[in-house]
Each structure stands twice: as structure tokens, then as C-alpha cells.
Design brief:
This protein has strands at residues 3-7, 18-28, 35-37, 42-47, 50-55, 61-66, 74-77, 82-85, 90-94, 100-104, 110-116, 121-126, 132-136, 142-146, 152-157, 162-167, 172-177, 182-188, 194-202, 207-214, 217-222, 228-233, 238-244, 249-254, 258-266, 269-277, 284-288, 293-300, 340-349. By secondary structure, it is mainly β. The protein starts with a strand and ends with a strand. Strands 1-2-29-28-27 form a five-stranded antiparallel sheet, with no helix packed on it. It has a four-stranded antiparallel sheet with strand order 3-4-5-6, with no helix packed on it. Strand 12 and strand 13 form a beta hairpin. It is built from no helices and 29 strands.
């Protein structure tokens, strides 16, 4: 596939965040989430009918996994060396060779996905019921399904038996006991933010960062009891976020071409440290825990060809990669043209 690369010398670790590495690949098909496998040094991008795989250090193509049916996201279990797609059916593959091991039939409409490290289980999330299908990462067997009481978007685990899932349509966060697969609490965002699309967790201090669409706000709350600690502004169109315990920073990627970095100065003090300019539609992200860099993706429709002499005016382009999100899809997750478009991979670091 045609590609181009750009490398920028990284600034010292104490400097501001900026784009330090980029690559571009022409192709077809929609994109949604990006997943970084820090241990395996790979980037996974579901696109069209396959999962594209790139080298995390060079951004060069490293293979692909075919047979994808409407996939959105990827999870990798480094213990079993198994990968899984949030698709219907779910694809399970060998994370070293990229060879497909099996496909797994699931219910609902898979969207997000998460590895829960304490139990070595994969959670496949669906906006329709059942809201989660739980898979054993060792053999791909289905452990169970569960309804979360709302439409899940992003999730995170504390590795100590608790799973936190933002419920986009309920403006809330569900707390799940990973041993019993039961919802033990639901934390309301208290009208401070609506449509949470990204979620970060400081597991050590038990602090959640819910990144919301309306208003464009980070709602910061206690993971212990749901008490709201603070709110801070972010960019428009969040669809992914996280927390880096090494730098004590939460981050949210937005469709408006910004990446918001929030510094946790203490367990009760937070501030917007920086707003990094990325590119429009770069709304999902993933953290490389080894380098503390954040990887984002976006697609861009190719320019229209020059009209022939004396040819009638061409109709305006309406590529859905550039279309605004619908009211029912505030982050634009299910939009994005399936036609030819340039895939951009952006790496943000210091």
C-alpha cells in the first residue's frame, strides 16, 4: 500500500507534547479505534475487511489479519499472545504470527473491547444488549454475557477486580465486579458532562476521568464512591482517552483535531496542562506505555481531481469522512467513508 513517513526529533522529556512521528497510507474502508501493543511493539487499526498491523517504532506495515466483519477495536493479551477483534464474529489470532486461530460468534453489535488483566478475560462491548460478552483469552470460550444498564463506550480496569465502563446514553459509569460479572454500582456524572466517550483511571489513587461530549468536559470523580472531584474543559468530539501513571497525566483525543492533556497535581488538584493540535477526525488514541507516547489515527478524503476543460461543475464532495457527527452519534464513531482515503497515524510525545 502506498505510504509516506515523517520523523521529527523528540524534545526533552520536560518539554511540551507535540507530534513527533507520522505516517500515511492510502486505502479504503472505515476506521474507528487504534490499539497499541506496547510489549509486542505493534499498532492495530481495524479498517474495512481487515485489521491493519504496523510496527510501533517505525510505523511501517507489519502485516494484516483478514476476514473482519465490521470491526471497531482490538485487544491483545500478552500472557497468552492472543489477539481479539470487536467484530461479529470476533476474530481470535496469534499475536506473534498474526495467523487466525478461530472466530467466535457473539450477540449484540460489538464496538469497544478490553482486556481485563487480573482475570485474562476479554470484554466485548455492544451498544445493544447484551452490553458485554466476556471471553476467556486462553481458549476463546465465552464465559458469559451481561447487561450494563446502558450503552457502553470505553472501559478501564484497576486490575484489582473492578471494571469501569462509561455509559454513553446514561451519562454515567458502571462499576463491574470482574469475579461475579455483576454491576455493583452506577456513578452519575451529575449533569456535569453528557455522553461520555473516553475514560481514564488512576488506579493508585482511585480517580476516574470521564471525557464527555456535551458539554465538552472532563468529569473527574472518585472511583471508590463516584464523588465528583472536578471538571475541566476539553476539545469537541472526544472518542478516546486514558491515563498515564508514569507521568500522572490523563489525556483525551477529539474529533476537532485536539488532544487534551490533564495533569493530576495531587489526588484533589487537576489542571489542563496542554492542548496539542493534531488533525481533524483524530478522535481515538492509545498509549505506548514504554515510551509515554500517544498514538492517534484519522482518515482524510483525497482531493478531487481537477475538472476537465469545459466540463460542467462537479457536485460538492460529501465524503462521510468529513461529515459532522449526527445527534445520535456525538463522537462520530460510526461515521467515516468506506471509499478511498488516506489513513494518518500520528505519534504525540515529548
Amino acid at each position: 500500500m502506498p505510504a509516506s513517513f515523517s520523523f521529527v526529533q523528540a524534545a526533552p522529556a520536560s518539554g511540551p507534547y507535540k507530534i513527533v512521528q507520522t505516517a500515511q497510507f492510502m486505502g479504503t474502508g472505515r476506521i474507528d479505534y487504534v490499539h497499541v501493543d506496547s510489549e509486542g511493539r505493534r499498532i492495530y487499526v481495524p479498517r474495512g475487511g481487515e485489521i491493519l498491523v504496523f510496527d510501533l517504532d517505525t510505523l511501517k506495515p507489519a502485516g494484516s489479519i483478514p476476514g473482519l466483519m465490521g470491526g471497531h477495536e482490538v485487544a491483545i493479551d500478552g500472557k497468552t499472545n492472543h489477539g481479539f477483534s470487536s467484530s461479529k464474529p470476533v476474530i481470535m489470532w496469534d499475536a506473534k504470527t498474526l495467523a487466525t486461530i478461530k472466530t467466535i460468534d457473539v450477540q449484540g453489535g460489538p464496538d469497544g473491547i478490553l482486556l481485563e488483566p487480573a482475570t485474562d478475560r476479554i470484554y466485548v462491548f455492544s451498544h445493544s444488549q447484551p452490553n458485554a460478552t466476556v471471553i476467556d483469552s486462553k481458549d476463546g470460550s465465552i464465559v458469559g454475557t451481561m447487561d450494563l444498564g446502558g450503552s457502553p463506550e470505553q472501559a478501564t480496569s484497576d486490575g484489582q477486580g473492578h471494571l469501569y465502563v462509561d455509559l454513553e446514553d446514561k451519562d454515567a459509569i458502571a462499576v463491574v465486579d470482574t469475579k461475579t460479572l455483576k454491576v455493583t454500582a452506577t456513578y452519575s456524572l451529575g449533569g456535569k458532562g453528557g455522553g461520555p466517550g473516553g475514560l481514564g483511571l488512576d488506579a493508585k489513587n482511585h480517580i476516574l476521568f470521564a471525557f464527555c461530549h456535551e458539554p465538552a468536559t472532563a468529569v473527574i470523580l472518585s472511583a471508590t464512591d463516584g464523588k465528583i472531584l472536578d471538571t475541566l474543559p476539553i476539545g469537541n468530539g472526544t472518542d478516546g482517552g486514558g491515563f498515564n501513571p508514569k507521568t500522572m497525566e490523563a489525556f483525551s483525543s477529539q474529533r476537532d483535531g485536539t488532544l487534551t492533556i490533564i495533569k493530576e497535581k495531587s489526588p484533589i488538584s487537576f489542571e489542563v496542562e496542554q492542548t496539542v493540535q493534531t488533525m481533524p477526525r483524530a478522535k481515538t488514541c492509545s498509549l505506548d506505555t514504554k515510551t509515554n507516547r500517544i498514538v492517534l489515527i484519522a482518515t482524510e478524503a483525497p482531493p478531487a481531481p481537477s475538472p476537465a476543460t469545459n466540463a460542467p461543475p462537479a457536485a460538492p464532495q460529501t465524503a462521510s469522512t468529513n461529515a459532522p457527527p449526527s445527534p445520535g452519534d456525538p463522537g462520530g464513531r460510526r461515521r467515516g467513508g468506506g471509499g478511498p482515503a488516506m489513513l494518518h497515524i500520528l505519534v504525540v510525545g515529548r
